[in-house]
Design brief:
Chains A, B: InterPro entries: Pyridox_Oxase-rel, Split_barrel_FMN-bd. Chains A, B: This is Nitroimidazol reductase NimA-like FMN-containing flavoprotein (Pyridoxamine 5'-phosphate oxidase superfamily). 2 copies of one chain form a homodimer. Chain A has a single domain, classed as Roll (Pnp Oxidase, Chain A). Chain A is 20% helix and 38% strand. Chain A has 5 helices and 10 strands; from the N terminus they run βαβββαββααββββα. The radius of gyration of chain A is 21 Å and the shape is globular. Chains A and B meet through strand 2, strand 3, strand 5, strand 6 and helix 3 of A and strand 2, strand 3, strand 5, strand 6 and helix 3 of B.
Amino acid sequence: MSADTYPPTDRTTPTRLRERVGYDRAAVHAVLDEATLCHVGFVVDGRPVVLPQLHVRVGDDLYLHGSTGARSLRTAADDGLEVCVTVTLVDGLVLARSAFHHSVNYRSVVAQGRAALVRDDAEKTAVLEALVEAVVPGRAAGTRGPDRRELAATAVLRLPLREVSLKVRTGPPGDDPDDLDLPHWAGVLPLAVHRGTPRPAPELADAPLPAHVQAWVDAG
Amino acid sequence: MSADTYPPTDRTTPTRLRERVGYDRAAVHAVLDEATLCHVGFVVDGRPVVLPQLHVRVGDDLYLHGSTGARSLRTAADDGLEVCVTVTLVDGLVLARSAFHHSVNYRSVVAQGRAALVRDDAEKTAVLEALVEAVVPGRAAGTRGPDRRELAATAVLRLPLREVSLKVRTGPPGDDPDDLDLPHWAGVLPLAVHRGTPRPAPELADAPLPAHVQAWVDAG
């Protein structure tokens, strides 16, 4: 899996707006790594279910985190679970002269395949550490790792990244030439995730921020 | 449908963490209205597909916007499409003393049911206006409305809000009592969507901002 792109398949080839879709591995990874959470779709009794979940990418595997009580993860216990994992970052609102060309600037990854429950305790421990690191770099060393009971109560699914696509809309509105002289404002209203001031747990109101939390603030 | 809560069903009753789940209509509506986009799950050939889409709530109907070329909307043309629409707002990263209690503060709505294609042109026109208003209040009057060709090229799905739940995590980390004396920092790192400076279309670099765009900036 050292190719620079994910090979397109029938399911990842769009029927429209093909110019917005790509398969570049580094770009896919960047979107997965930037997002706080993903939306995981699976099928229960023939009907779709979509739930937000925490994820972390390790190489070309995407790991999903849940409780052993969660329905998706119980279903996956036997022979895996067919999932569609979608991650979307919103970059701006696109205001065109025409209502029709209103849009959103975004980057969205769709990864499809069969996710398997991670049964190996060493792999699970490594993934949980990666998950904590994905939340805040440096955090794994600043927390108590899972004990045996906690490890047993946590379920982790592994989805190998194989059928993956990235859809991106960027740039100014795409108005029809005939509309350019209309007296309507057009442009992009940028949106971004903003990092606020850390709120310590009540018992730690006067404690100094550790270096990894200060670094999170400074990178915001 | 004037009740204050959505009646719980088997599908919207959680098997765990019940204290985080609610059915309050106003709270559900507030989350749907605040979110820029939703994730729509549906089933294709027995497998899940999850795509980001724009949405707007009008009363107790949730409308989804797409192109007539989109696979989900073509599938819905006949007798509707079973969907799960999930909207998630991320409010913060929750850092606990233990890795196990790391979490995210969020508000997430899950709405399930059968979505139907809107065929009535008057309803479709009203929904498209509401969609533009949902992007930026006041915008519908500041843009050219859809002509017949654009209306025909736009597909809108209506999902009546019936099976709906809201899941919320809020507040400080929930560490085990035994962990409170560990030398690890704990607290919440707030996240919020930040509104940036409007970027006019290239032809409008020197045009003044219209009132509805200035109001969007001021409300950020």
